[in-house]
Every structure is written in structure tokens, then in C-alpha cells.
Prior knowledge:
Largest sheet: 8 strands, mixed
Distance between the termini: 51 Å
CATH architecture of the largest domain: Alpha-Beta Barrel
Mean pLDDT: 97
Order of helices and strands: EEEEEEHHEHEHEHEHEHEHHEHHHEHEE
Helix content: 25-40%
Number of helices: 13
Strand content: 15-25%
CATH class of the largest domain: Alpha Beta
Structural class: alpha/beta
Shape: globular
Bound molecules: fe (ii) ion
CATH superfamily of the largest domain: Metal-dependent hydrolases
Oligomer: single chain
CATH topology of the largest domain: TIM Barrel
Amino acid sequence: xxxxxxxxxxxxxxxxxxxxxxxxxxxxxxxxxxxxxxxxxxxxxxxxxxxxxxxxxxxxxxxxxxxxxxxxxxxxxxxxxxxxxxxxxxxxxxxxxxxxxxxxxxxxxxxxxxxxxxxxxxxxxxxxxxxxxxxxxxxxxxxxxxxxxxxxxxxxxxxxxxxxxxxxxxxxxxxxxxxxxxxxxxxxxxxxxxxxxxxxxxxxxxxxxxxxxxxxxxxxxxxxxxxxxxxxxxxxxxxxxxxxxxxxxxxxxxxxxxxxxxxxxxxxxxxxxxxxxxxxxxxxxxxxxxxxxxxxxxxxxxxxxxxxxxxxxxxxxxxxxxxxxxxxxxxxxxxxxxxxxxxxxxxxxxxxxxxxxxxxxxxxxxxxxxxxxxxxxxxxxxxxxxxxxxxxxxxxxxxxxxxxxxxxxxxxxxxxx
Length: 417
Ligand code: FE2
């Protein structure tokens, strides 16, 4: 007897094909997928032809700052740099309980909307490493229902403070999953380059992934992506390395950008764009025409480079809005990147699912296949396009074989003629 049987669903594959199936789950794993399964189950759900998809992947968020909007003050200029200043004040009074309770609340919001894999950055620029310790504890506390990766993120730069280099190495010793960086916010170009080399050195020493906040600025002279690409080529680490944001890529001249694209094809680097945040943070010093401030998602996708979309912030000093809904992220991404062709819209769905899993290096345990852990969601949608267009309700969230969350679709009643 199965533990859980999902009847009458429509299973979505990454190439967009859809098959009518039942899915059987036992001891946390998918044990059978077939048009009709006869064996009984302890619990059965009739999906009424709703769409079965692998869960959403949140490949870039800052859980340590989530839900702090307005503390101690609102970001009036709306810039990245005022956000960093506000956070510098707010993080003076972080406690383990403060970070943990906000992080878990945010993860619950995300999971109810179908997110079961999350990569969070933890600021490691304060000497107590409270944010990192808290998120490492959260990672363990929630592991029965959501997978969290923690990136040691030196918000103020590895060389922006005398302690910071020591702190990021300590974060590796404490068990961060990935080493991060912010080369464009180091004090000089030379420090920025040095920081990228240091990040690769730490990742190799401790055998960790890399995820760098890279060129998150409108400055067309911010060119640390080429340094990351060179290090990825020299070390052969490309598929384990992620360049987040890379918004300056949208401002580079085309001659340079096309050369860079050809280098990137050789690296296997992963890219993360954060369209909700970057459409609001970037371009703030422009008058008109005003830049979109998002990296070249379409061109990267067209050449086969792995790109995923992240939410980045939920109600914090950089972004006061957000609910953790990855369909909002995909929708903003396709608008800002002008990916409105049918294949392009479908690709944006993959950027919050399969591509994110590849970025996180969890593809081996992600996806709906017999033998894999039973992590899946059921959407009140016909297909990928319909899911994004309608911001489909996530009817069921199944995490490691158990029903984690359930949402009823809103029902509008027409009283007119
Ligand atoms: Fe970020």
C-alpha cells in the first residue's frame, strides 16, 4: 500500500510536454508514475487534471534581512547603497532569535507558494556572525520540509573592513555551503579583483560552491564578471560557480558584451537575475532614457548558458514588497527582459524551477522521477504559460512525501448580466 497517491494529474516535463498520470509515494520517495495505478494508498488526492510540477527553486534570497522593512528607517532614495547603510544600522542589534524567527516565517511563506529549495545569503560582515549562525541553525531546523543552502556573503566587502577576510574564512569553518563576494563594492578595482581570487581560493580549500554578487551596479566599467569567468576557466569550477545580478552587463557596449558572451560559453557558469529588485534598484541615477538594470538574460539563455531567477529580497531595506511568489519573479523577468515569445515565456518558468536546481547543484535529487525524493507541487494551471500569466494557485505542496501545504483557488462569482 502506498503512503500517498496523487490521482488524475497532468505531469509537466522540462521540455513542456505534459502527460496524464497518477503518482505514487512511499517512504518519502516517488515509487511509481503511470497513467493509472491500481494499488491502494493510505491517502489519495484527486488532482482533477491540475498540473504537477517540480517545486519552485528560490536561487537567491537574503533571509537574514527579510521582514525588516522600515527598521530602523525606510529606504527613501530606493538605491542599493542606501539599503546597505540602513542594513548596517539594523544589523547592530541582530540576535539569533530575531534572524531565525524572520527566516522561518519567510520560508513558510515561500513553501506555501511552492518553493522547496532555497539559496540564502548570510551577511558575514559583522564580527559576531549572528546572521550566519542563525541561518545555519535554520537550515537544520527546516530540513524535513525545505532544503536551504547558506552563502557566506561579505556585504561590506572582503577588504572593506580589517576583520572581514578572517570572518569569511570562519564562516567556511562553521559550515556555510557556499562562499560569496561583492567585488564591485570593494574599495578599489584592485581589491575587487583580489576578492574574486580569494573567493576561489576559499572554495577550493573548503570544497564549497561559489555565488558572487557581481557587478550589481549600472557602471559600465564594472567588469568583475570577466575575472570570475577567468577564474572559473582556470580552476574548472564553472558549474559550481554562480554570478548573481551582473546588472552592469546590461550597460556594457556591445563589442565588449559579445566578446564576454563568447568567453562565458566556455565556462559553464550559472547566472542569477533578480528582476523584481533590479528593476527597482538600478537606474536610480539615470534621468531619461532610464536603464532597466537587468543582466542580458535573453542572450545568455539563447546561447545555452544556465540562467535562473531569484526573488532576492522580501520586505527589507532594498525592497519593501514581495510575498515569496516565484511566479511574480518569473512574470517580472519576462517583462523586463522582453521575453514575451511563447518559448521565451516557457523558458522563464524553467528559470524558477529546473534551472534554479542546476544553479544550486541539486539536480540529482530534483525532478519528478521514480526513485527521487517526493518533492512536487500541484498548480491550478494548464501549462507553464498559464501558470505565469494567471499567477496560478499552488493547490498542494508535497515535501519529502508529505502534504506540507494546501491552498484553495479563489472563486469569483459574476452577478452581472
Ligand atoms: Fe542579493
